[in-house]
Each structure stands twice: as C-alpha cells, then as structure tokens.
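Would you mind writing out the residues of a protein together with its fold in token form for me to study?
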Amino acid sequence: MNTRLIWLCLGYFAIALLWLVFSGPLLERLASAGSQPHWYVARAMLFLLLSTALLYAIGQRYLNRLALQHQFNRASQSSLRQAAAVVDSTQEGVLVTDAKQTIIHVNPAFSLITGYSLEEVLGKTPKMFASGKHDSDFYREMWQSLEGKGAWSGEIWNRRKSGEVYPQWQNLRRIVDEQGVVTHYIAVFSDLSALKRSREELDYLAHYDPLVSLPNRLLFSERAKHDLERARSGRRKGALLLIDLDHFKDINESLGHSLGDALLQEVARRLKGHQKENMTLARLGGDEFALLCEDCSADQAAALALRLIDSLNVPYNLAGNELFSTASIGIVLYPEEVQNVEQLLRNADSALFKAKGSGRSTYAFYSQELTSQAQQRLELASSLRQALEQQQLRVHYQGIYDLSNGRIVSFEALVRWLHPEQGLIPPAAFIPIAEESGMISAIDHWVLEEACRQMQLWLSQGKVLRFVSVNISSRLFSHADLDQHIARILRRTGLEPRYLELEITESAVMEDPDAASVLLARLRALGVRLAIDDFGTGYSSLLRLKSMKVHKLKIDQGFISGLPDDQEDAAITRSVIGLAHNLGLCVVAEGVETAEQAAFLLQEGCDFGQGYGFARPQAASDIDWCDSTMSYGQRITV
C-alpha cells in the first residue's frame, strides 16, 4: 500500500514537470500562432489535459480505497477488541492452541475453573489436564470428529490444579486459513460440577427423607418391587417389617415437633444399627418405618423384630428429656400370595394393626398361623430373660473319655434350662432363640464362670482332671476383648488357665479368619486350651488351620453316626484323625453311642470320645465318681 502511494506521488510530480517543460514553448508558439497551425497547439493542450485528468482519476480512486481500507481496519480492530472483551468476561473457559496444540491463550474463566494461571499453561499442551478417566478410544473418536467435521462437543472429565477430577461440557473447533491449513484449535468449556450436584440433590430429595436420611416411600417401593420379582423368579422368601412408634402423636403434640423430629432421628439411628447388606430401611412417612429383608425366613424375621423392639424400648435422652417410646411391628412374608408392592404394604399394614391390637410393643405376622408360632417364640424368649434373672439355668457335664483306657479325662459343660412349669427344656428349643435375640452372650458368660468355679472345686477335692471344656458361641467369639473377660473369670474363680478349654466352632472362626487368628493367639498367650468344634462342617482351609495353632479338633457327630459301616463317614473320620495327628493335634469324637463306633475310632487312633454311649450330661451333684478310673454310668467296652 505504501509503494502504490509513492508511485501516485511520482505521477503527480511527472505531470507537473511536463507542464513546466511544455508550457514555455507552447506559450511562445501561441504568441507566434500566426505562422503555426492551430491544430498543433490544440493537440498539445489536449494531451496535457487528458494526462492530467487520467492521473487525477487514478489517484482519487486509490485515495478512496485507502480511506475505505483505513475505515475497515478501524472497524476490525474495534470488533477484535469487543470479541476479546467478550471472551475475557464470559463465564465459560476458553483455551486457544496453535496447530501443534501448544497453548497460546486462555481467558480468566479458564483460570477460575481449572486453578491454572495463564503463565502456568502457556507453551504446554492440553494433555496436562487429562483425568485418566477416558481410554484411548474416547480420544480417538474425538479427534476423528474434530478433523472430519471441524468440531466436537461432549462431556469430558478433566483434572484441576488441585488434583480434583471434574466434569466439563466442551466444544472444540478447528480453525483453518484460506488454503484450508489448520492454524489454531479453540476449546470452550463449562464446569458441570455444580449442575451434577444440583441433579444429585434433586434426586436425593426425590428419593430420600431429608429428616432421617433414609429412602422414602418412592425409593422403597421401587426396591421392594425389584426384590419381589427376584424372589418370585429365584423361589426364595423375603420379609417386610412395618415399624410404627406407639403413641408418637402424644409425644409430638405435648413436647413439640422439634423434639418429635429428634426422636425420629434417634429411632432411625437405632434401626440402622440392625440393618445389614441385604436389607433396605426406609421412612414411609410420619412415625412409620419399613425394613425390607431379602432371603429371610419367618423365624429370622421374628428374631429381628424382637431385637428391634428391644432396641426401641430403651429410654431416649433428648435435649435433657428422658422419653419412653415403644414400637409395634407388622410382618409379611413374600412372594407367597403377594402380587405387587401395593398388596405387600397393605398386608404389612394389616399385620401392624393386629400387633397394635394385641397390646402394642409386640409384633404380628400377616398369617395367623405364623403369628401363633411367633407368639410362642416371643413368650419363650421372654421366659428365657427371666430364666437368667431367676437362676433357672443349669450346667450339666458330659464326660470326655480316653479311648485307650476308658478313663474320664475331662468334662464338657453344657447349659440346660429348668423351667418352673415346663420342666427341663432341651437346648435345641431355646439356644436358637438365645442366639437370635442376642441373649446367647450373657448365657455364655454365665456358663463359663460356673464351669470354672466347678472345675476349681473338683480340683480342690482331689479329682484328677485335665480340663473342663466350655463352648463359645459365634457372638461371644466376635468380641475383641474375649481374652480379657476370660482372664477376669479365671481370677475370680481361682482356676489356672491350663484347666480351661474353649471350644470354638469352625464356622465362627471362618466368619473373619484374620481377626480370629489374632484373638486365638491372645487366648493361647493367656494359657487356656483351644479346640475347633464341629470340624468338617465349615469351610476352613488347611493353611488357616495351620496358622490357628489350636490344641484339638472335635469331629462332628454327623460323621460318627454312620460308623463303621458308612464308607464315606469312615473315610472322612480316618482323614481328619490323620490330619490332626500330623499337625500335632488331639482328636475328640462327639456323639459316640455304640461299642462298634468306639472300636473303630480306637483302631484309627482317635484320642478321646464322648456321647450317650458313655454317659449322658448330668448335674455335677449327680456324677457317680468311681475309684481311680472315674468312670460312671453305662460304660462302653472296647
């Protein structure tokens, strides 16, 4: 543009020079025009005028173009300044790279969203923001769209400077010049974190109760529908427990809604303490809660209802007020005779109405037959609590015999219940109730102390016994401080630890093998003896058995009953005896009832035996001690 202006100026200068060159002679010729033809003068004048006009027209046109170009440049610069202002003020992040994907510009919103300043990203590539959540296929498809269509839009997860991974909605554009060569890439993105949080909050409000943070009726109905279908197709049972607080309206109206809300929150917290992985706990509205239990039988549902009632009956201390609130529970089993969720809830509501009509603070099944059975179990559980308080429980002792000589070497302590009206209740009738209601730990504690006290008495009387054996339930074995509790009992009774043997079931050990190994090690350090009861009925591995380092294995009576004729029982028994001896352990066979069984066990090298064939469990006062062999009752001759 500057070169053309120079040539234009030179053209004007040439015209001026021509006028100076030709004007003098032309004027002289005009003065002496009488002797010269007029057409020559006219032609010279015409040439000068046309040249001047032509150069003037060309120059004027170019000057106009220069003015328009200048005006356009000013407008373009104004547009660029406006665009830059828009980019810098927008709430969306903007990133610009060159053709080699080197970052050359970012706007303030980019820094606000990512945490990176302009100086920190200049000269680098967008790969520094990768989150690691996307695979190579994702990026390949993105670049294929960008190169093929010139643009790509979609959700992508990137990483902030803080390390937080967050979602973006990103628009990518490819910029090309007149020849179609890529010059730049531009990314415009927005942070989706707040939007996703809002969606999650809306979803939470739609499906959860905000007061107690539990699923509401809508979400509960969805889950109940799904499990009802799975139970029907899988031919398994489930149970719905509908829980309603008794007289909650009186508490709410007399003490205020804020205290009523606090009570509901505490009720929810207590109910959560009984919730397991296969359960859904929800608040259906008001003071009504629901607990959906997958793979649940009638007995399990009744036992759970008892635990819930006991938990909710404990006084509440809220804002300095001690409140008493009980609960009633309606139970319905599914999928039998239940077509849909609506019917499931109706049946549960009917069962709840039945429970409230029975005096509240109890439970009832939708089926009258199940309600009657549950009522009997409830009465038995209530009586069992009284049995502990009124000392109706007894400890009977069954002898453990040395099979090589027929002598008693120790006793196993077994609990019995002497009911004042029903007489002696067998363990099979009340032990499951004790386990389901949680009373088994208290019973174990009592039996343990009674057995230690009796063993110390026998030793003081000169009885030659190696130990007394006491069963430890899974619930008691799960207590991390079991060794400390046993140490206190031994101190109180004065019994040396070596005279106490603890029988732990194989299934209890396998519930948490690592924690079991730690506890067993502490018990061994205490000095007590350890035996694995019911060996062969669980799923323990030889590696686990080796690491536990117990003293004895007890073969379950289920393998003894078929001896010596059942080849499978004989093979299993023979293998367990050999395994135990190879590991340096003693073996006790339970449930020995015949001389043939005892003879087989002795032949295979079994160390000890116990069972009705030797003697039934008896009270300590009824044991008939006989001379040095200390045998009693009907003996087996081997």
Notes: The CA atoms of residues 89 and 108 lie 8 Å apart.
